[in-house]
């Protein structure tokens, strides 16, 4: 992933969770829990949360998984991993510094791969997004599950316009106020309105090799959970 993006998330790590909760009015917590409950249907004994950030999704997964399942939390940003490790340690949860486009795992390693609110950060263009998704596909076992939680585009035009206006008026300003980082939240304010609507992202998942793709829109379509099978 680009060095500039790594620097942005290094600057944002200390207050990243707080700002996410404030900007979404706490709904991001509920959405992650919904996605985690979808994900645990994957079964198996080895799960990966990629682009894990401060480890919120990985923590939910490890709590739901049970002692026999090992959850790996992977992120490319040392500061994010450091924040994740500050959480209460759970025996079945481990952390690793890893680049999402070149995961340090063998083919067919995991029963489940999840990613939450990070997919829009790995696509400077569609070709590179597909390449990352193919990497997630590579490390999944046959029949393994992929769960993607991300901001989305409401299908109703007036709701989409209000959503984009809210992003424009709040993300950059409030993010800077709480974190002190202009670049981090300028970047996030730019990426959110430009991510794909759910049907188009489903097509991209299919192009990356996934099958049995479904999606579930959340809160009038401002976010979505996609599930897919290798």
UniProtKB/TrEMBL annotation:
CDD domains assigned = AdoMet_MTases
UniProt entry tagged with the keyword S-adenosyl-L-methionine? yes
Q: Which InterPro entries match?
A: SAM-dependent_MTases_sf, UbiE/COQ5_MeTrFase, UbiE/COQ5_MeTrFase_CS
Q: What is this protein called?
A: Demethylmenaquinone methyltransferase
At the highest ranks, the source species' classification is: unclassified sequences, metagenomes, ecological metagenomes
Keyword presence, Transferase: yes
Gene3D superfamilies hit by this protein: Vaccinia Virus protein VP39
| A GO BP annotation | methylation
Keyword terms: Methyltransferase, S-adenosyl-L-methionine, Transferase
Q: Name one GO molecular function term.
A: methyltransferase activity
């Amino acid at each position: 992933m680009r060095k500039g993006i790594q620097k942005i998330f290094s600057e944002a790590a200390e207050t990243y969770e707080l700002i996410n909760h404030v900007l979404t009015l706490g709904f991001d917590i509920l959405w992650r829990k919904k996605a985690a409950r979808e994900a645990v249907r994957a079964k198996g004994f080895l799960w990966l949360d990629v682009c894990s950030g401060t480890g919120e999704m990985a923590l939910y997964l490890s709590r739901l998984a049970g002692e026999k399942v090992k959850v790996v939390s992977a992120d490319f940003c040392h500061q994010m991993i450091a924040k994740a490790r500050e959480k209460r340690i759970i025996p079945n949860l481990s952390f690793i510094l890893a680049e999402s486009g070149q995961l340090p795992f063998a083919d067919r390693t995991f029963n489940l791969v999840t990613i939450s609110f990070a997919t829009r950060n790995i696509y400077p263009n569609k070709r590179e997004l597909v390449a990352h998704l193919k990497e997630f596909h590579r490390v999944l076992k046959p029949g393994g599950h992929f769960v993607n939680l991300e901001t989305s585009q409401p299908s109703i035009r007036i709701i989409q316009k209000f959503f984009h206006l809210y992003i424009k008026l709040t993300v950059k300003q409030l993010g800077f106020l709480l974190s002190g980082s202009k670049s981090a939240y300028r970047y996030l304010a730019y990426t959110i309105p430009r991510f794909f609507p759910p049907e188009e992202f489903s097509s991209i998942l299919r192009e990356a090799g996934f099958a049995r793709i479904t999606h579930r829109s959340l809160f009038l379509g401002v976010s979505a959970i996609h599930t897919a099978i290798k």
